[in-house]
Amino acid sequence: MTNNPLKISVVLFFCALFLAFGLKGARVHANSSGPPLSRTGAPSEQTCAASGCHTGTAVNSGGGTLTITGMPANYTLNQEYDITITLSQSGRQRFGFQATVIDDTGKEAGTITITDAARTQAFPGTVGANLRRYINHTFSGTSGSNTISWTFRWKAPATAVGRITVYAAGNAANNNGSNGGDLIYTTSASAQAPVAVPAVTTVSAASFAGGASLAQDMIVAGFGSNLSVNVVSATTSPLPTQLDGTEIEVRDATSTTRKAGLFFVAPTQANYVIPAGTANGTATISVKRSGNTVAEGVVTIESVSPGIFTANASGTGIPAAVGLRVVGSAQTFESIFNSPGGVPTAIPIDLATGDFYLILFATGVKGAASTSVTATVGGTATPILGFAAAPGFVGLDQVNVGPIPKSLIGRGNVNVALTVAGKPANVVTVNIK
């Protein structure tokens, strides 16, 4: 199957940019605050040289250069790019440009946004039946010495439309008060449609619940294919952002991209931490090797996303927790499971002596308000003694539950249910003697 390429053409053209001296030496200017629309040299458009605005040297023959930087080889849907147009011409002090971004059918593709309102401006226009949008200089954006640059932001469309071409035209004006001798240039830059990459699915590394939101500074697991060549674990603190040539980037809802700290990578799984500071909203996860994206996925970031780690690392069964028994002023830690043959088995908890607390290890909890964390054990409301980031462990949270109600004595296996800001964590099980 072939796609009709969508050409992103940025045409930079400064039409009729010159200063003329009027009566009594007063300075006047024609189109120095922006050329007429549809003069970019894009399909079905002229340039100012072709339309007679400027005469003299043929287009692109003046010895100068017009370049476009910032356009990707392949655009990413909804991704924003800063595009810079640079026009260089020795001995010139006045410059101008016009640009448009269109697809191969001639229609506007993506969205142009002004980032420097003092030096650039944008206007809608039409060519035939096609809507287009143009960006060009303001009068304040014409002054330079031998070279000048303009920058604007382009947001790729939400759906792939093939190749997109940015046509651009520029004018290196001689400022002699006439329309002769100005040097006109055209250029273009193209971005191809997104390259299909395998998906990476990211879930809580504690609960492994699919479809759930995630939280910043949370331990997660990404599942996909060809995420790495070897199985490599981190051995340093802080966590490395590259293992076995694999990096993971998180681009949040503000388009800010951060590298994730990696716990380990393997061909089909990578455990990492959502970077602190990641904004709430939709975030894009990109797995990269040698700078190339090998897997990509989308997640939702919220303030909390509770998950409890379990002894069997499956998100179910006995929590990977410890018990704390308090008798008078004495405190002792106790195991709540052992692992004969590598299979976690619950150790019955004796509630008869003193008070017994569960110290749960979780992730995605620390961003909650202090009053929004609740728990039940065996269906009975149980106090939350406190919760916080576990000291010395990246992304890990500690939740202290208890004392466990003595009314549960003799109940055997009971569920421990934790709720954080209205969001339930994965349910785990302990055994009460």
Question: How would you explain this protein's 3D organization?
Answer:
With 433 residues, the chain is mainly β. The chain has 3 domains: 8-191, Immunoglobulin-like; 201-302, Coagulation Factor XIII, Chain A, domain 1 (Distorted Sandwich); 307-432, Sandwich (Immunoglobulin-like). 0% of the residues lie in helices and 45% in strands. It has no helices and 35 strands. The protein has strands spanning 8-10, 18-21, 27-30, 65-69, 80-88, 94-103, 111-114, 120-127, 130-137, 147-155, 164-173, 183-191, 201-204, 214-215, 219-223, 232-233, 246-251, 257-259, 261-265, 269-273, 281-289, 292-302, 307-308, 322-327, 330-335, 337-338, 345-346, 355-363, 373-377, 380-382, 384-389, 397-401, 412-420, 423-424, 428-432. Strands 1, 6, 8, 9, 11 and 12 form a 6-stranded mixed β-sheet that branches. Strands 23, 24, 25, 28, 31 and 32 form a 6-stranded antiparallel β-sheet that branches. A 5-stranded antiparallel β-sheet has the order 13-15-20-19-16, with no helix packed on it. A hairpin with a 7-residue loop joins β31 and β32. It is elongated, with a radius of gyration of 31 Å. The termini are far apart. Mean pLDDT is 89; it is low at 1-30.
Supply the key terms.
Immunoglobulin-like, 3 domains, elongated, Coagulation Factor XIII, Chain A, domain 1, 0% helix, 6-stranded antiparallel sheet, single chain
Using the alpha-carbon principal axes, give the shape.
elongated
Strand elements, count: 35
Question: What would you report as the Rg, rounded to the nearest angstrom?
Answer: 31 Å
Count of runs of 4 or more consecutive helical residues: 0
How many structural domains does the protein architecture include? 3
Gross CATH architecture of the largest domain? Sandwich
Strand content: over 45%
Helicity level, as a percent range?
under 10%
Structural class: mainly beta
Segments where pLDDT lies below 50 for 5+ residues?
1-30
Straight-line distance between termini = 65 Å
Largest sheet: 6 strands, mixed
CATH first level of the largest domain: Mainly Beta
Q: How confident is the prediction overall: mean pLDDT?
A: 89
- Indicate the CATH topology of the largest domain: Immunoglobulin-like
